[in-house]
Design goal:
The complex is a heterodimer of chains A (186) and B (220). With 186 residues, chain A is mainly α. Chain A has five helices and no strands. In chain A, α2 runs antiparallel to α3, α2 runs antiparallel to α5 and α4 packs antiparallel against α5. The chains are: A mainly alpha (186), B alpha+beta (220). The interface between A and B is medium-sized, with 35 and 34 residues.
């Protein structure tokens, strides 16, 4: 199984199946950004109970999602044969760790968008706001691309990779910032 | 089934977000605080039945904003004051460039009551687009009238460790451009320029990010 076995003359790539996922993903990203800007921040949102404060809750949920994203990266590399490992359930692991990570981000995003809104005053907050919108856009595009047939081979690695990069950036600009400047609390 | 799995994942996330958003909107803290503060109304409602309290009982409490920022001048001492309210929690900062006081407390029933170190205290009524009240500090009292302000005006705070030293700073910006602030490094006042609104302060060559109330109130 070496790289040379890949078809030497690639057939003309048809990008049309990619159009719908990318358009919908773009709309999601733009829609979230517009909502975050237009909606007056409520300063409050329902989240997961058991933490001392909203930011603490968000920091830990995001950390959970980020750890699962590392599982995502690893299981994807196994699925694509980049890491040689014979585990038949790797696909299931990839799907369910991804779903769980996505679910963990939802209360965080609701608090971000409903309670705070997108803000551009400070570089960290601006990067975080933009990455947050981008994350859900590219995740939507990835999800909608999964069932499509006839996509270019690079579609899923690129979209998945971008999702991973976006989540890593979100974690760095939120949880990592919180734990290092405010402290590690529960 | 398998082909639609990703779509279900997206749909589940969207439904979760909508449910959380709706629950957040219906349990808005304005009404929560009013109910929680109005002990008599709550007792009456409990005694008569387990039904939800009547609107009349709720109306007896004065409205308290869930989120509001006030900043203005303190009459007669040359300092500025900022009061911010978030969901029943209140923070305030007084500063004249040499002396400062951080206070925290509660907002309820159209009022804020706050206290800080060295017997500093603030009581103020909220309403009519301003917070009007008194500041007591070092055995003396002043009055103030602070209108509602919008970002970038208002209160900012920074806490950081710069080259091993504990840095804490507070800044107040008014709409007319007046600003005041103080940076304290290891409990000593440091000579640090007040940053332009939205920019970082520079302490000992290191940039320190001023946080707005939404950012710092959790850890305050």
């Amino acid at each position: 199984m070496s790289d040379t076995q890949i078809t030497p003359v690639p057939q003309r790539q048809n990008l049309t199946p990619l159009l719908a996922p990318l358009v919908v993903g773009g709309l999601v990203a733009v829609g979230l950004g517009v909502y975050g800007r237009l909606h007056a921040p409520a300063g409050y949102a329902i989240g997961v109970a058991g933490f001392s404060g909203a930011l603490v809750m968000k920091s830990w949920l995001t950390t959970g999602a980020f750890l699962l994203a590392l599982v995502q990266l690893f299981s994807a590399l196994v699925m694509w044969g980049r890491i040689k490992l014979d585990v038949p359930w790797i696909g299931t692991l990839h799907r369910w760790s991804g779903r769980l990570a996505f679910v963990l981000t939802i209360p965080v995003a609701v608090h971000c968008l409903y309670a705070l809104g997108s803000q551009f005053d400070v570089p960290r907050v601006m990067i975080h706001s933009l990455l947050g919108c981008f994350f859900y856009g590219v995740f939507t595009a990835k999800m909608l691309s999964l069932p499509k047939r006839g996509l270019p081979g690079w579609t899923l690695p690129v979209l998945g990779g971008l999702t991973f990069v976006a989540l890593t950036g979100l974690w760095l600009t939120s949880s990592f910032w919180f734990f290092t400047t405010i402290g590690i609390k529960l | 089934m398998k082909r639609l799995g990703p779509v279900y994942t997206l749909a589940a996330g969207a439904v979760m977000a909508v449910v959380l958003g709706t629950v957040s909107a219906t349990t808005s803290p304005t009404t929560q605080n009013v109910n929680a503060q109005d002990d008599t109304a709550a007792t009456v409602a409990e005694a008569t039945s387990q039904a939800t309290p009547t609107p009349a009982a709720v109306r007896t409490a004065k409205p308290t904003p869930a989120k509001a920022d006030y900043a203005g001048r303190v009459t007669g001492n040359g300092g500025l004051i900022a009061v911010s309210v978030r969901n029943g929690k209140a923070v305030a900062y007084f500063c004249d460039g040499r002396i400062e006081a951080w206070l925290k407390g509660k907002a309820a029933d159209g009022k804020v009551t706050l206290s800080g170190r060295n017997n500093a205290s603030i009581t103020a009524r909220l309403g009519g687009g301003k917070a009007a009240g008194t500041l007591a500090f070092g055995g003396r009292k002043w009055t103030f009238d602070a209108p509602v302000v919008k970002k970038p005006s208002g209160l900012y705070r920074a806490s950081a460790v710069v080259r091993g030293a504990n840095v804490r700073a507070g800044w107040i910006y008014l709409d007319d451009g007046t600003r005041v602030g103080l940076t304290v490094v290891n409990d000593e006042v440091a000579d640090v320029a007040i940053p332009e609104p939205g920019q970082n302060a520079v302490v000992d060559g290191v940039e320190v990010d001023p946080q707005d109330v939404d950012e710092f109130i959790e850890g305050f």
